Amino acid sequence: MRPKVATLVFHPALLGCFWFILAAARDLSVEITGTDTGDCTTPCRTLDYAIRQLSSGDRIKVGVGTFAGSSNRNLSPGDLGKANFSIEGYQTDLTIFDVERAGRFMYLDAAAGDILIQKLTVRNGACSALPDDRNGAGFKLVQSPAKLRDIHIRDMDCSFEETLPREFNGGGLYLVDSMASVQRMRITDSVGNHGAGVATWGADVSIIEDSIFERLQGLKWGGALLTEENSHTEFHRCRFSHCYSTYGGGLDDGGLASPLIADCVFDHGTALHGSAYYGYGLSSTRFRNVIFQNGHASSSAALYLTATVSPSFANITVVNNTANVDVAGVRSFVSSILFKNSRFIDNRVPSSGADGAIQANAGGLVLEDCLFEGNGPAEPGGTVGITETGLKFECLKS
Ligand SMILES: *[C@@H]1O[C@H](CO)[C@@H](O)[C@H](O)[C@H]1NC(C)=O
Ligand SMILES: *[C@@H]1O[C@H](CO)[C@@H](O)[C@H](O)[C@H]1NC(C)=O
Ligand SMILES: *[C@@H]1O[C@H](CO)[C@@H](O)[C@H](O)[C@H]1NC(C)=O
């Protein structure tokens, strides 16, 4: 044993190791009954104070109660040199951070490193109270690998009377160039100009799974979601219900965005155009195994595709949607659009001369292994309409 002890004392690399073992991760705590003194190994009162006490690897446990006031909001650990820690509430519905309409809950960036936040509720964020970059009233993540689990974000307000394309987006969650992992998030009862639930920008590649988006209103475009620029954000097993926007009750995209929407359901969306989805810009959104149901567009379609988009659709079901004007299911201005292995069922428009399932007017519509059933009006051509002449209409194995 003796030679080993001597090595430890004289070898700087091993000394470093030895120090690391001594600096073990600690549990800090925040409780309604705590006080902001000491190092939070006995309960403190506010999250800001606890974050200032932590070292990398520490865990902050937050108890039951509603935590409000200026030391429980507008938190930015990276700016304090704090990184690589976790925050865990007692239970999602019992540990509540109330932002009191005075800004956002938390900003996380690359400097904050590997963060895990779980089991808490955030409510009453307001973008208009932010000094600049008025996006993300719940969380704003920039170049962040954060993990968010079992978080409920509700009653966010990211609305503004003017249309500023890059502001007042992402009521609950604003993701820029991030690689975050979000699981079992619920974002509900919120309003924003664009994407009252989530907005994604830059080269975002975050993954959002098993999450619920309900009763979200996008006053300008994108009720639940806005995806922009080069976002390749993925949404797996998510449900979007009762969301509204003028353009895209569930999702509006733009730029070169190519999000993946897989195994998701859009239910009871409403819009002027696109009660579930409004495709815009040079986006190429990927839809796999998605159900679009029970939507209503005051003008046209559950899925509204402007001329320059190139979305892909595989195994989608467009069912029981209504619209007042052109078409209930899909309105496409795209030069060639392919639906693979998809179903169009019981989509209805009241007026004659309109189409139940699909209306395409700028070229090819390719249907591979598709089913049409119960769409109306039932007059000839009322299911699928091609509104310009001389254009290609292929129906393969329909
Ligand atoms: C956080 O972790 C990352 C990656 O493990 C590391 O590069 C960084 O230095 C850590 N930051 C701090 C403040 O400990
Ligand atoms: C098609 O999507 C539905 C959900 O919309 C899913 O239940 C089914 O498994 C998918 N089929 C294939 C072959 O992926
Ligand atoms: C069809 O949609 C309407 C309006 O959203 C709804 O009331 C009705 O229950 C839906 N029908 C089915 C079979 O889901």
TrEMBL record:
Segments forming domain Right handed beta helix: 156-322
Keyword Signal annotated: yes
Keywords (A to Z) from UniProt: Signal
Pfam families in UniProt: Beta_helix (PF13229)
Keyword Flavoprotein: no
SUPFAM superfamilies: Pectin lyase-like
InterPro entries noted in UniProt: Beta_helix (IPR039448), Pectin_lyas_fold (IPR012334), Pectin_lyase_fold/virulence (IPR011050)
Span of the signal peptide: 1-25
Name listed for the protein in its UniProt record: CACNA1H protein
Gene: CACNA1H
